[in-house]
TrEMBL record:
Regions of compositional bias (Basic and acidic residues) in chain numbering: 157-173
PANTHER family: C2H2-TYPE DOMAIN-CONTAINING PROTEIN, UNNAMED PRODUCT
Protein name: Uncharacterized protein
Organism from which the protein derives: Ostreococcus tauri
Stretches the record annotates as Disordered: 66-96, 154-173
Top-rank taxon, per record: Eukaryota
């Protein structure tokens, strides 16, 4: 298979939701498209009406970042903070691979399901290396490493009511 044949393809795997980072610190309380709330979806999962596998897989971006030492020092200070360590010739900075969600609302539901013991792992779509590099280089509105958070996130109410609720409210007046 040629290198070009694999460009843009995605790999699917399963991971624990708690290992995936949010790409924003705030999310809306409703899914776009179906107008269902995150809480309603979580309730459906907890009651067994649906499973986390009924939700589409989360698309994730992978990125290597400097690992933080257990004493709170980052690798760029070579462990001089805290207990420190001797500088060794050829000492390389430690990195860890992080997963960042491109679907924060789905991730929130899946993390809560994991916290409640309803699921252990979820399906994810790993974006290709080329797709990740484009997102990282572009610094897009959807993905910037400096805005990512391991959680928790703040849930904000959606400004506009779903069309079916607006129609009901008009008849009540």
């Amino acid at each position: 298979m040629s290198r070009h044949a694999t460009r843009g393809t995605t790999a699917r795997t399963r991971v624990r939701p708690s290992t995936i980072w949010f790409t924003h610190g705030r999310i809306h309380d409703r899914f776009s498209g179906c107008a269902k709330t995150l809480a309603e979806t979580l309730d459906d999962i907890v009651r067994g009406r649906i499973t986390v596998d009924d939700l589409p897989p989360i698309s994730v971006v992978t990125h290597d970042v400097d690992a933080v030492e257990s004493d709170g020092s980052a690798s760029e200070d070579r462990g001089r903070r805290g207990r420190g360590r001797r500088e060794r010739r050829g000492d390389r900075a430690k990195t860890e691979r992080r997963l960042y969600s491109m679907n924060n609302r789905r991730l929130w539901v899946m993390r809560e399901a994991e916290r409640l013991g309803v699921c252990e792992d979820v399906g994810v779509r790993m974006l290709s290396r080329e797709q990740c590099e484009v997102l990282l280089r572009k610094g897009s509105r959807n993905f910037r490493v400096d805005r990512c958070t391991p959680g928790p996130v703040k849930i904000v109410p959606t400004r506009e009511e779903p069309p079916e609720r607006r129609a009901e409210g008009e008849n009540d007046a």
